[in-house]
Each structure stands twice: as structure tokens, then as C-alpha cells.
């Protein structure tokens, strides 16, 4: 008889608290799906660039027809930028950016990359999010060695 009472007591406990736990899980799932717990909203604005080691990000602008990216020479000596490309992280060919001819940049000097177009899959409409890869080829003027710096810029497509 005592075992039956314990079983009945356990079943009542599960039914009573089970429904409360089920409703709580359901409410949390609905809030999660609506984006209430989106970590990006809590973290604040996303850093617009990452990955660069030889150059520092200064600013950029991307619209549906092209991009302008301003970078700073973080190498402590003069470099010669020999080429730059922008594209997605995939096997599709990237788009060449100016400067097409070698550009000498002193230590801590800024320079601008102008990209006349963006690879097709990178962006589509004004307001869409994007992340594009920027690849910069340069020569260290002291050592004469060629290097490649790769970074990423991200944001929303501007009009």
C-alpha cells in the first residue's frame, strides 16, 4: 500500500510540475525564435573589419556597384602595394582593385583601394549584410620580400 501511495505522489508531482516546465520551455523556445536572445543585439555593433595584420582598417564604403576601402600601413617601414583584390571566401574569381600600378606608402601612411565592382554573390540589395575578403599584395621596401595580407570587411550595403 505504501508503494502505491509513493507512486501516486510521484505521478502527481510529475504532472503538476511537468506542465509548468513544459510551458516554460515553450515560452523560451518562442522567444528564441523571435530573436529576443540574439547575442548580436547584446554585443553592440559588429567590428567592421578583421584579419588584417600588416595594415590597419580605417574606413570603408560598399554599395551595389563597388567599394572604397581606406587602410593604414601598420608595418613600421615603407611598403609598395603591388595589387589588391576584393571578393568572397570561395573559389570564384575576385575583383581587382586600384592601385593597379605599384603604390609606395610610408610607415603609418593611409591609402585607398577603389574596387569598381563586387563579385556577384557578395551582395544584392541596399540594406543587405555582407562580408567580403580583401587581399593586398605588397613588397617590404627594406627586405624586398613580397607579402600578402588578407582581411575582411563587413557591414550593410549602402545606397
What does this protein structure show overall?
It is a single chain. The longest helix is centred in the first third of the chain and has 32 residues, at 2-33. The protein has 2 domains: 2-43; 49-156, Immunoglobulin-like (Sandwich), CATH 2.60.40. A hairpin with a 7-residue loop joins β4 and β5. The relative contact order is 0.19. The strands form 2 sheets. Strands 1, 4, 5, 6, 8 and 9 form a 6-stranded antiparallel β-sheet that branches. It has a 3-stranded antiparallel β-sheet with strand order 2-3-7, with no helix packed on it. The chain has helices at 2-33, 39-43, and strands at residues 49-50, 55-63, 66-73, 79-87, 95-97, 103-105, 110-115, 129-140, 146-156. The chain is an alpha+beta fold and 159 residues long.
Order of helices and strands: HHEEEEEEEEE
Distance between the termini: 77 Å
Strand content: 35-45%
Estimate the mean pLDDT confidence.
81
**Pairing-aware structural class of the strands and helices?**
alpha+beta
Q: What is the CATH C-level name of the largest domain?
A: Mainly Beta
How many DSSP E strands?
A: 9
Low-confidence region ranges: none
Global outline: elongated
Gyration radius from CA atoms, angstroms: 27 Å
Secondary-structure blueprint:
Layout: H1 2-33, H2 39-43, E1 49-50, E2 55-63, E3 66-73, E4 79-87, E5 95-97, E6 103-105, E7 110-115, E8 129-140, E9 146-156
Antiparallel strand pairs: 1-9, 2-3, 3-7, 4-5, 4-6, 4-8, 8-9
Amino acid at each position: 500500500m505504501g508503494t502505491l501511495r509513493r507512486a501516486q505522489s510521484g505521478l502527481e508531482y510529475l504532472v503538476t510540475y511537468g506542465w509548468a516546465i513544459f510551458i516554460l520551455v515553450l515560452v523560451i523556445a518562442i522567444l528564441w525564435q523571435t530573436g529576443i536572445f540574439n547575442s548580436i543585439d547584446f554585443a553592440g555593433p559588429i567590428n567592421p573589419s578583421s584579419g588584417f595584420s600588416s595594415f590597419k582598417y580605417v574606413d570603408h564604403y560598399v554599395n551595389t556597384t563597388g567599394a572604397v576601402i581606406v587602410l593604414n600601413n601598420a608595418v613600421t617601414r615603407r611598403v609598395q602595394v603591388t595589387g589588391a583584390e576584393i571578393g568572397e571566401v570561395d573559389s570564384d574569381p575576385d575583383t581587382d582593385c586600384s592601385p593597379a600600378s605599384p603604390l609606395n606608402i610610408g610607415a603609418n601612411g593611409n591609402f585607398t583601394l577603389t574596387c569598381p565592382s563586387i563579385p556577384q554573390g557578395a551582395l544584392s540589395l541596399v540594406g543587405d549584410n555582407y562580408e567580403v575578403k580583401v587581399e593586398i599584395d605588397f613588397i617590404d621596401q627594406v627586405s624586398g620580400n613580397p607579402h600578402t595580407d588578407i582581411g575582411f570587411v563587413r557591414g550593410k550595403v549602402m545606397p
